[in-house]
Amino acid sequence: MKYAPINPKFPKLLHGGDYNPDQWKDIPGIWDEDMRLMNLSQCNAMSVGIFSWVALEPEEGKFDFTWLDEIMDRLAANNAYAVLATPSGARPAWLSQKYPEVLRVGSNRQRNLHGIRHNHCYTSPIYREKTQIINRKLAERYKDHPALLVWHISNEYSGDCHCELCQEAFRNWLKVRYDGDLNKLNKAWWTTFWSHTYTDWSQIESPSVIGEQLVHGHNLDWKRFVTDQTIDFYKNEIIPLKERTPEIPCTTNFMGTYDGLDYWKFAKELDVVSWDNYPQWHHPGGDQIIASEVGFVHDIYRSLKGGKPFMLMESTPSMTNWQEVAKLKRPGMHLLSSLQAIAHGSDTVQYFQWRKSRGSWEKLHGAVVDHCGHENTRVFKDVTQLGEALNKLDVIVGTSVEPDVAIIYDWENRWAFNEAPGLNNSHKEYEQTCKRHYQAFWEKGVPVDVINMDCEFTGYKLLIAPILYMVRPGVAERIEKFVQEGGTFVTTYCSGVVNENDLCFLGGFPGPLRKLLGIWDEETDGLYDNDQNSVTIIADGVVKNKRSYQVKQICDLIHCETAQVLATYDGDFYAGQPALTVNDFGKGKAYFIAFRNNNDFEHDFYENLMEHLDLRRALQTELPSGVTAQLRSDGEKDYIFVMNFTKEDKVVNLKEEGQLKELLSGDVVVGDLHLQGYDVKVLAR
Ligand code: GLA
Ligand code: ZN
Fold it and tell me: How far is the CA of 121 from the centre of ligand 2 (A)?
């Protein structure tokens, strides 16, 4: 499958980053230097104007585009493009001063002072009007500019506002959700608990640290509202852009698995999704684990639009300034970590930041151009090396992958599970659990989609839903159909517990998944960190050799109804009870893993399933530990990214693969592929 380039007028992989020329206006000659250095490092797409509102509108209604005109012209003259931002991420002081309603009110009901960024109300009609005015000016001015490539809407939308305008909007949102029927809302929120029944809509307020925060349905609806309101704000921002530049794609930069917004809903409104990626490379936890976790997130971004390539909108050329330790990327890591994004479906590698800021919070954050101001730095060379590499990979643009496996990672499910008191309060770990399930596939080079529970399941051979705590209406039926038609489904402990309002299913867990899984899940045991128990595999063909696995943190106590027992608990009062089951259902099978473990079980279990189900891999060979292979394809030609996330040299045996071409070196590869520490190769098949 091949998608169109992000913007067909420039069908290449994009390379560039956040460029803040307005910070440097007063230094003569510096923009000339910027252009020279961009050329040298083969940067072709610069994100401009992200926080430039006051530079564009120094006084209300008085605009100054001269500097931006010049930058746009210079970019065009330099064969580069602008990922042009709307400036709503931070506002001018005059705006906050004149219209305090644009400033955010916290959950403690106090209005913030002017300052920082992202500190605005999404509901405020004045803020919406002002952002539209400046956006319209930008669109009118640059609509025919050859440098305009992509619209970068605002920056990292996040947070919530609890002002009176937002309270009113929340109530109106609830009226729509509950058909104007307060009784419906009371039922959905189970408000008879602690005498919470509302008798008038006006009594409802957003969750607050000084008020109500323990009504789960309430919290869930607030999060849904915040997502919808943020999307509504985004839509308001793009109206003038779509009017004047309908052919220019719009995106906004998401933040990985940021909890506060349901990116599945938001992604629908974007033309292309993009995200900001700041892994802690070289953390003592190990690059291999980090790489697998980052792979998981990249795969979310490719899946958010059904396989369409995404943008890596930000990454650091060297280190970040806000992590515990500002570790430099070791030699090789810049190329490797950047091509990792491409390997999983990005068509861009972009940075924060182009030129290291001189003052304030980001003056020591990684940048392409350091304070020394010239190109003779290690980082600049790394960036240039990547620019050269990307130039050799234009064939990759628009390619994608169609995995046999999907893992469900669902925002609403995570919200509900993380709120659930009980189970094991100090170890919820929904996200980590999903990432652990993913790891086995990453290690084998088996491509994975990471989807939510509303996505289409047909086309996959294996569907994995770790902790499917919430089951929204229709989902169980769709999974049943998937299995009935021959699919394999795997889920775990704490699944099928609540409905879309966070109300527990009655009549026995796992609620609507009970028939499919053929079990009754009676109780959940939480384990202290020192508690010991294990499971023994009693059936053949589940794992290769090992038989016993330690359990930790969470154990469900289940009974088989139609399922078959594959493993049992060894200890405690539930010794001998089922710990792993499989249920034959139509042409397929549904597995239930009742226990949490150190991931060694999932590793062995999936290794077996991968073989058994003959899942598509990037390479038909065993990969050495710490090396992964990821696939992109246009349907005819395959491109395989082989990446070594260890310091050690590795060899990958490609005997089975015939002749491959390595695109970065141009070499033909037959037999052994040698990878140095932190090395990456791109093979064409
Ligand atoms: C975020 C922001 C950028 C910058 C970087 C620093 O991703 O979008 O403006 O602050 O963090 O890492
Ligand atoms: Zn507000």
Answer: 4
